[in-house]
């Protein structure tokens, strides 16, 4: 265990990517493109294994073709307590409608904290990895011990060109130290 008195946490910036091992690279690529809206991006040519890189929402997903797809575990039960990635959305009703249209099985949950509600939908990708879609931005981010919100921010999904800067309003207890994007 790291001793927090010896220099603190690693100097990290943000989440870069998540990697998933796939039974079928083509099936998983189709899912992440057409269900979750990710865009395929160029992979380094020096990689000597089958895979695909995708990007959207400020994060990357790296799909890796399994060398032995039959040995991969098969998950059928949708369990919100299992490992998963979560995506914020603006309309839970539209997401639920789309999942129904696509015939993707899902379960719903609702979390309540101090009169604030978060709705969640959980489902699997083609390889059994859990995906959560939520309106989690409803909850303020409050560090343990202080009780004061660090960020209360409604994120907006904007496609920004490299040279553009867009100001996104953000309510915070320390606005000069918070950037919402």
UniProtKB/TrEMBL annotation:
Q: Name one Pfam family in it.
A: Glyoxalase
**Acyltransferase: present as a keyword of the record?**
no
Q: Which domain of life is it from?
A: Eukaryota
InterPro entries assigned to the protein according to its UniProt record, in alphabetical order: Glyas_Bleomycin-R_OHBP_Dase, Glyas_Fos-R_dOase_dom, VOC_core
GO molecular function terms listed in the Swiss-Prot or TrEMBL record:
transferase activity
Q: Which UniProt keywords apply?
A: Transferase
Q: VOC domain location, by residue?
A: 14-136
Matching CDD domains, A to Z?
Answer: VOC_like (cd07245)
The record's listing under PANTHER family reads: F18B13.24 PROTEIN, PTHR46142
What is this protein called in UniProt? Metallothiol transferase
Q: Output the lineage of the source organism.
A: Eukaryota, Viridiplantae, Streptophyta, Embryophyta, Tracheophyta
